[in-house]
Amino acid sequence: MRYLVILKAQQPDGPPPAELMAAIEALGVEATNAGVLLDVGGLAPSAAGARVELSGGRLNVVDGPFAEAKEMISYAVYQVRSKDEVVEWASRFMKVHRDNWPGWEGDSVISKVFGPEDFAPQQ
Amino acid sequence: MAATDPDHAVQRAVTTAVETVWRIEAPRIIAALTRIVRDVGLAEELAQDTLVIALEQWPARGIPDDPGPWLMATAKHRAIDLVRRRVRYQEKLAEMGRELEIVPESEQDAIDEALDDHVGDDVLRLIFIACHPVLPTEGRTALTLRLLGGLSTEEIARAFLIADTTAGQRIVRAKRTLAAKRVPFELPPPGELPQRLSSVLEVIYLIFNEGYSATAGDDWMRPSLCEEALRLGRLLAGLMPTESEVIGLVALMELQASRLGAREGPGGEPILLGDQDRGRWDRLLIRRGLAAVARAAEIGGVVGPFVLQAEIAACHARARSTAETDWPRIVALYRVLVYIWPSPVAELNLAVAVGMAEGPAKGLQLADTIAASGALDNYPQLPAVRADLLERLGRDAEARSEFARAAALTRNTRERELFLIRSER
């Protein structure tokens, strides 16, 4: 089963420490080589993005930045055997931040992507 | 009520955490232990003991911050203790004037070596040992799913529609055979690598195919088995990133798996390639598959059957419809495949491709040659392919009887229904 994990965080000022980037890379290699990490990418600050809203029949385009307390930092797609497994990988990812960037706070939001297992054929 | 009891809830959360970490780490732990104790059966038992220790200790002491390394360290200590006890036992035997079966120095080496870090290498060796040619194919498959996939005996039994006891026996027998034949826990020498690697690739692809088009049973597909094979393939690709056939196998599986969601109708009925809604193909898997095909081409070297089949799958993945498919290229690729890896099934696929590229008459000619050879007498796809070509030639009566024959031959319920419908129209 496949999960989309979106990392939202409030970053301390300044660039992320090099140790963090190295630890993230090592964990990424581990998850890739374990065959569970399918795709991953960093997300630019919301200033670079936009929002297209449809409300009351009206289209409205809003450019970033948005006022959310936490910015979306990155996404990752995992294919694992259970929700518990993706929770474990996401926890490892968060621990890497805790151990390498004091003051960093964030959440990994885990969403299940519908898959064939969710549409079992009627017998 | 048990569900609202906080202690019970904590206990359950810890149990889930232990089992999850265990599932993720089991192949690496079993692999590391096998290097120390030189016996996969014993290694698996020791690994299971470690799981039990975690289940006993974590609820009381809390889940360790790094649960994976904790499990690995605990498991290694147990294995090393065992080896030390064995060494002492051997020394005692020696004192009593008996012959030494195991040289203590080599065991000491094993202990020293165990403290080094070779995780990736160990997992690779475990794959090669689980797929060793001394084992029958079904033993290789069961052992691979057990040791590397972390599947339980019941899950393996369910995947292959066999009794739990049968699955259990296959695993036990495979472990015993490896021990009895003293199969060393090492990578094959360079000269034997291609042959041994092809056994590994075959096992993984067999698991994938069992999920992709189940040979028997009520479900046409078992996607979780495809996912498991993909995971094993990606794991192998991570360990052998420069072997083009490994990358080719992963590419092939990614591309085939990209069609899983489009291969089945709402009632579970099969939808064949030409009729699939390509909008339902999985773009992420296609992208990964095409990237892997490109990587395999970059690696170069001798082109093997998996790279070729991946190239063929890539032709389908790139096409927006059956009509826009590069059939001449597919024919050319199948011709090479049949040449380097002769098999009647590959020839039958060539007949299908020729039927698309050069017309049904040419395709039928090839299919008839295969039929005359008798090599695929019990293979339901042969009459199905012939039926399809006959139908396109307007020979409807013959087509109907061939579809009926295909229906009688298949052991898969869903496939039989499809063939029956076509035999009646």
Automatic annotation (TrEMBL), chain A:
Segments forming domain YCII-related: 1-92
PANTHER family for the chain: BLL0086 PROTEIN (PTHR35174:SF1), BLL7171 PROTEIN-RELATED (PTHR35174)
Entry superkingdom: Bacteria
Alphabetized SUPFAM superfamilies for the sequence: Dimeric alpha+beta barrel
Coiled coil regions in record: none
Record-given protein name: YCII-related domain-containing protein
Taxonomic classification: Bacteria, Bacillati, Actinomycetota, Actinomycetes, Micromonosporales
Assigned protein family: Belongs to the YciI family.
Pfam families to which the protein is assigned, alphabetical: YCII
Gene3D superfamilies (alphabetical): Dimeric alpha+beta barrel
TrEMBL record, chain B:
Entry keyword annotation includes Oxidoreductase: no
UniProt cross-references to Gene3D superfamilies, sorted A to Z: 1.10.1740.10, Winged helix-like DNA-binding domain superfamily/Winged helix DNA-binding domain (1.10.10.10)
Domain RNA polymerase sigma-70 region, first and last residues per copy: 26-88
UniProt-recorded Gene Ontology molecular function terms: DNA binding; sigma factor activity
Keyword Transcription listed: yes
InterPro entries assigned: DUF6596 (IPR046531), RNA_pol_sigma70_r2 (IPR007627), RNA_pol_sigma70_r4_t2 (IPR013249), RNA_pol_sigma_r2 (IPR013325), RNA_pol_sigma_r3/r4-like (IPR013324), WH-like_DNA-bd_sf (IPR036388)
Record's keyword terms, sorted: Sigma factor, Transcription, Transcription regulation
Family assignment from sequence similarity: Belongs to the sigma-70 factor family. ECF subfamily.
Designated name of the protein: RNA polymerase sigma factor (Sigma-70 family)
Organism: Allocatelliglobosispora scoriae
